[in-house]
């Protein structure tokens, strides 16, 4: 009963706009084998409120909302909807009761049209034509324009999210769950979304809002519930907290601050890209067009942009996964390398950390030592006369473990057995220990907990201090602001002129991320910076 | 004139099993499942179909036996590939090997037996029209059924909600599951439909094409049907064109040998596959965006519960 008592206490006073909560979970638990993804979670959702759900990756946020939406069955605990105990048989029952959900990784079908996608999210009681008419009406009412006949693969990320939201709104939900809706949006697109959410709130609907962006939560949400390690830590009023205090509750401790060394000096250009253009390699790929930049030793260049604007293609072109016909398009350490293979580029002193940890950055079922060999064989003395020096590969693992605080169960486990943050620390460590002259790293802290993220960012700063040129692609503007000296933006396969980090405000970056050009004067200024 | 009519008739007859089997496989693949066991399901359908017709003396019962046998075979596939999430390619290949062996066992006692083949339609007046009469009004029931089936499948896929859900499962099973659709159940039905069609296609051979059963009589038609689905880029309309084209090539190959044309028959037999490769290349060059194949085709799906 203690838990129940706490639940009533924990809802801030004066926020309860209704008599009883719309939705209440009591002791909700989800167990996968020995692992408790949700451990006895109590949460109250009130009508006319935006309720934030915070927590690090693996804290149990997704599991909780999946249980509320009927996608998974809780192992224990109760869900009450309008005061009545319910057991959801599946998402369609949740929808029919008035619970809607907008997924983080959109639940859309690329090769179907917008209207077909919307129809699939409804229960099919009305004819396709009636549904289309209602779709047009809802999208007009909420200012979410959509062309129902286009296929999804042709649409931008923002448009795709609009489909999800319109689809959820067409069921006239009393309660809407949004799982990290702004993770892939530009700041301007986020602002438009907030207008829609405020409107939904004023209509008396409840919203459960999952986000990593604490400033956003403070601005938008009335209540916040914080999860850590599958348990509820706290329910609070985010407007009375600071971003730092919220982060402390999420992490359960202080986060080490990342510091750049003073007096970092830039040296010679170590990575130069000259007018790089490349046709897309696959069906939904992006064409790179006339990309040019120069990166000096001791410098960190950040590349911002909404995912899918050519960042993956640029990484492939820089790493040598895709070759360029013209060798001069990519110059590493003064040597034209556009036509060189990955191994040859590594021998020139370059190192690469791709976005995808498992399957791209490492071979999941191979040991860490073998994964160290895979990128280190060419230039790190791990191979003698064609034979592997096992001791040298293990030494690399030990050094990476020690230097970057990689936590693992045994000395040399399979890559897949490490948690995301620890594996990322290992991968970044593996490359940094090779003392690269140039490091190209993509989404270095994507899906990594705050503690590991701080270690990785510090390592990148230290590497630059030591004289290397570092190129960081990230969708996290705060991360780029923290470590980059200059920031450029990718949009539709083109790269903007880099802005000095001090001038790269969220507004300016947001405009570039949405495809607008800066004033010519400003752009010229940026080139000079 | 007689010869032209004879050629058209034989092309229709040769194309019908391809069309039937490929229509079933198209539905299976549209749901996201790649069942390479078409050849195996066909040959078992042929053996059981012949057995049914020989035992009861009814072509209709024989066809039902064929359908049932193909469906049973596809259920083995569904159990392995969907229920136990085994690799679909390996399971499909194993199914073909199993089918070839099983059909030999079932059919062993029937080799050398004969039945009366399926009757052809005969409408006095219409069937006697020169050239087109027998082609349009003098076929067996299988030919008409196969055409009706493709039309029905087209209508189902593009005009019904159930068809939309099936296509959605083939495009993105994770999304379909997240929206609450029973992906594995839908796919099981699609696989069973594919098996039923393959079984019927197999049964067509001893019931209508030749009135007797010999082991291995499908002779690679299952593989051609698979190629045909790719050739049609998973669209029923193109499937009809492709089936008659591939059927025509088969017949042409026989006649070319008869006329003494100096093209090796092996080259002619390879033509359907060559055509499929060329179409694939052309398709990938022509389209800049969305994929033509169902995006989830052949991938294993295990829902988390």
From TrEMBL, chain B:
What taxonomic ancestry is recorded? Bacteria, Pseudomonadati, Pseudomonadota, Alphaproteobacteria, Hyphomicrobiales
The GO terms describing molecular function are: transmembrane transporter activity
Regarding the membrane, this protein is recorded as: Multi-pass membrane protein
Keyword annotations from UniProtKB, A to Z = Cell membrane, Membrane, Transmembrane, Transmembrane helix
Could you list the residue ranges that cross the membrane? 6-27, 34-55, 61-86, 93-112, 141-158, 189-207, 213-232, 239-256, 262-283
Check the record and name the Pfam families matching this protein: BPD_transp_2 (PF02653)
The protein's name? ABC transporter permease
Grouped into one coarse class, the protein's main location is membrane
**Location(s), subcellular:** Cell membrane
> Can you name a GO cellular component term?
plasma membrane
């Amino acid at each position: 009963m203690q838990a129940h008592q706490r639940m009533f206490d924990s809802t801030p006073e004066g926020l309860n706009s209704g008599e009883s909560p719309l939705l209440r979970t009591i002791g909700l638990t989800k167990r996968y084998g020995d692992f408790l993804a949700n451990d006895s979670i109590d949460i109250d959702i009130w009508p006319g409120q935006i309720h934030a759900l915070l927590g690090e990756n693996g804290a149990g946020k997704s599991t909780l909302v999946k249980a509320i939406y009927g996608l998974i069955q809780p192992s224990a605990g109760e869900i009450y909807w309008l005061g009545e105990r319910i057991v959801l048989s599946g998402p369609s029952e949740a929808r029919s009761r008035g619970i809607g959900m907008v997924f983080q990784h959109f639940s859309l079908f690329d090769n179907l049209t917008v209207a077909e996608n919307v129809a699939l999210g409804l229960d099919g009681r009305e004819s396709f034509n009636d549904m289309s008419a209602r779709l047009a009406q809802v999208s007009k009412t909420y200012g979410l324009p959509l062309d129902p006949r286009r296929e999804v693969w042709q649409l931008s990320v923002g448009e795709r999210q609009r489909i999800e939201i319109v689809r959820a709104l067409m069921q006239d939900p009393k309660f809407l769950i949004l799982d990290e809706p702004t993770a892939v949006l530009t700041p301007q697109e986020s602002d438009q979304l907030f207008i829609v959410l405020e409107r939904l709130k004023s209509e008396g609907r409840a919203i459960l809002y999952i986000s990593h962006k604490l400033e956003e939560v403070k601005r938008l949400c009335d209540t916040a519930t914080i999860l850590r390690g599958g348990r509820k830590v706290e329910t609070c009023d985010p407007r009375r907290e600071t971003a730092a205090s919220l982060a402390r509750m999420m992490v359960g401790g202080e986060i080490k601050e990342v510091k750049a060394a003073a007096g970092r000096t830039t040296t010679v250009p170590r990575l130069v890209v000259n007018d790089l253009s490349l046709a897309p390699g696959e069906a939904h790929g992006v064409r790179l067009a006339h990309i040019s930049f120069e990166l000096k030793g001791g410098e960190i260049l950040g590349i911002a942009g909404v995912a899918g604007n050519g960042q993956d293609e640029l990484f492939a072109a820089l790493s040598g996964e895709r070759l360029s016909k013209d060798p001069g398009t990519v110059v590493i350490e003064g040597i034209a390398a556009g036509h060189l293979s990955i191994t040859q580029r590594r021998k020139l002193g370059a190192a690469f950390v791709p976005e995808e940890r498992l399957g791209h950055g490492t071979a999941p079922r191979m040991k860490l030592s073998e994964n160290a060999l895979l990128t280190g064989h060419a230039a790190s003395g791990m191979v003698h006369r064609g034979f592997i020096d096992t001791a040298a590969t293990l030494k690399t693992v030990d050094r990476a473990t020690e230097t970057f605080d990689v936590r693992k169960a045994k000395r040399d486990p399979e890559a897949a057995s490490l948690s995301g943050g620890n594996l990322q620390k290992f991968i970044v460590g593996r490359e940094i220990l090779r003392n690269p002259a140039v490091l190209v790293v993509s989404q270095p802290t994507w899906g990594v907990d705050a503690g590991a993220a701080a270690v990785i960012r510090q390592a990148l700063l230290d590497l630059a201090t030591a004289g290397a040129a570092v190129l960081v692609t990230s969708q996290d503007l705060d991360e780029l602001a923290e470590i980059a000296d200059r920031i450029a933006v990718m949009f539709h396969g083109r790269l903007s002129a880099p802005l000095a980090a001090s001038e790269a405000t969220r507004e300016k970056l947001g405009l570039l991320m949405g495809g607008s050009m800066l004033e010519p004067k400003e752009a010229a200024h940026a080139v000079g910076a | 004139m007689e010869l032209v009519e004879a050629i058209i008739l034989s092309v229709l007859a040769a194309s019908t099993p391809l069309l039937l089997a490929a229509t079933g496989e198209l539905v299976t693949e549209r749901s996201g499942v790649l069942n390479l066991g078409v050849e195996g399901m066909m040959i078992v359908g042929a053996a059981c179909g012949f057995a049914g017709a020989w035992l009861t003396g009814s072509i209709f019962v024989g066809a039902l036996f064929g359908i049932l046998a193909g469906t049973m075979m596809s259920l083995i596939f569904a159990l392995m590939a969907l229920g136990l999430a085994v690799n679909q390619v390996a399971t499909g290949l194993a199914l073909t090997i199993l089918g070839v062996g099983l059909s030999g066992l079932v059919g062993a006692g029937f080799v050398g037996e004969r039945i009366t083949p399926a009757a052809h339609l005969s409408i006095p007046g219409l069937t006697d029209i020169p050239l087109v009469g027998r082609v349009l009004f003098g076929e067996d029931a299988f030919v008409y059924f196969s055409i009706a089936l493709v039309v029905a499948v087209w209508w189902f896929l593009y005009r019904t909600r159930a068809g939309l859900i099936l296509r959605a499962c083939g495009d993105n099973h994770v999304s379909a599951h997240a929206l609450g659709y029973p992906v594995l159940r839908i796919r099981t039905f699609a696989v069973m439909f594919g098996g039923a069609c393959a079984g019927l296609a197999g049964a067509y051979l001893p019931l209508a094409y030749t009135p007797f059963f010999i082991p291995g009589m499908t002779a690679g038609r299952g593989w051609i049907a698979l190629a045909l689905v790719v050739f049609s880029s998973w669209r029923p309309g193109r499937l009809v064109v492709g089936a008659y084209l591939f059927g025509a090539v088969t017949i042409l190959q026989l006649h070319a040998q008869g006329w003494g044309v100096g093209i090796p028959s092996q080259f002619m037999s390879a033509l359907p596959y060559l055509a499929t490769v060329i179409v694939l290349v052309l398709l990938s060059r022509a389209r800049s965006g969305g994929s033509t194949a169902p995006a989830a085709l052949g991938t294993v799906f295990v829902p988390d519960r």
